[in-house]
Sequence to fold (472 residues):
Amino acid sequence: MQTSITLQIKLFGAFRQFQNGPVTLEVPSGISVAEVKTALWAKLQEIKPGADLALLHASALANSSSVLEANTRLTESQSLAILPPVCGG
Amino acid sequence: MQTSITLQIKLFGAFRQFQNGPVTLEVPSGISVAEVKTALWAKLQEIKPGADLALLHASALANSSSVLEANTRLTESQSLAILPPVCGG
Amino acid sequence: MSGKSFLNVATETINPLAAVDFVADDAHGAADVFIGTVRNHNLGKPVLGVSYDVFDDLTLNVFQALADESRARWGEKLNLYIEHYKGRLDIGGVSIIIAVSSPHRDETFQACRYIIEEIKKRVPIWKQEHYVDGDSEWVQGTSLESR
Amino acid sequence: MSGKSFLNVATETINPLAAVDFVADDAHGAADVFIGTVRNHNLGKPVLGVSYDVFDDLTLNVFQALADESRARWGEKLNLYIEHYKGRLDIGGVSIIIAVSSPHRDETFQACRYIIEEIKKRVPIWKQEHYVDGDSEWVQGTSLESR
Fold:
């Protein structure tokens, strides 16, 4: 039987329209970062049905130390962040 | 008979070793800027016999609005400045 | 010996003099300081103010990477001050300050320019513009995905 | 409409904040500030301080020319602050400040860099270094003759 992990995903920038606090996802251990984005897509649709989620394609998942590659696999519960395209300065 | 003009020449940078105030030269009207430098050379030798005047070759004569070309001719008494190579900043 | 760094996400008004004072160094003859401020217009549209959203932890990690990269390219001695504002600013408010000092000027200009260009592309910060008509919009940016 | 200029030969301590405040502009999103200070060494020799000799009138004329040239190349809107110290400074003293603001950053970096490079070559200012052993020397510079 597959174990599951819990991902807390902080929303930044334009994603704040969905909610201000983090989104929680229960996902199977070993999930890839690309698959997490798909799961997040479903969750955001649930929060705000019909929302335009095109932005998600250009957005990256990261932890507090770096941006994660799409093929990285996650096996532990952790806190992540979804980062839309940046424009600091 | 040739008229003469009076040039007051301010000394800057390394030329301050000769004196702090301006040097006064009586020169013939129509003198070229290059010739003024020769006259200044003689005057500075007089103030401090044996001084090394190599610096004068690399120095420019100017008025308060611009550096003067060597072949410019002066026909009026005026105030000038002798400018050694610059190093501001 | 390596120079010193001050890297910060500010929630209080950014003070340019603090940056200038921090990088000052008896062995350094030059400092370049870049200051970004909120403009009263963008793409022809009048702007009232800007809110900056910042993922603090990762931002500070990228600031540290930029400091390391700058010292590797322009000398270990560089003193660096990098500070970005988080929260809402009115027109004229300082959103970012970068100060770099070095014994000589060329390194200060190059490193300062490098840091601001990289920040625009690599640091998790987002800008929401507030318009005169009451509307607000998140400014389009550079994707972190392709890196 | 053309931006504004402050061009000065200072005999009082140069204040970086005055430069930053002067160039600030609601329509400008970027400012680059260059600060030159007296280093504690030059060409390997320990330095105690530096005296700057300045031909004020011509210096201000060249500053004005640099302001005009900068606006012609990087935009009429540039706000410019150019100030050089005259007199003696100790280590760390500010000898020059150049601040440039513009709607966008590229122009500020380019104009600021241009102005400091041209000042080193074209402005009638001379530097006398004072050494630990009590000796003093006028620093070699760039001849204005060949121009």
About this structure: Chains A and B do not touch (no CB pair under 8 Å). The first strand of chain A starts at residue 4 and ends at 11. Chain A has a mean pLDDT of 95.
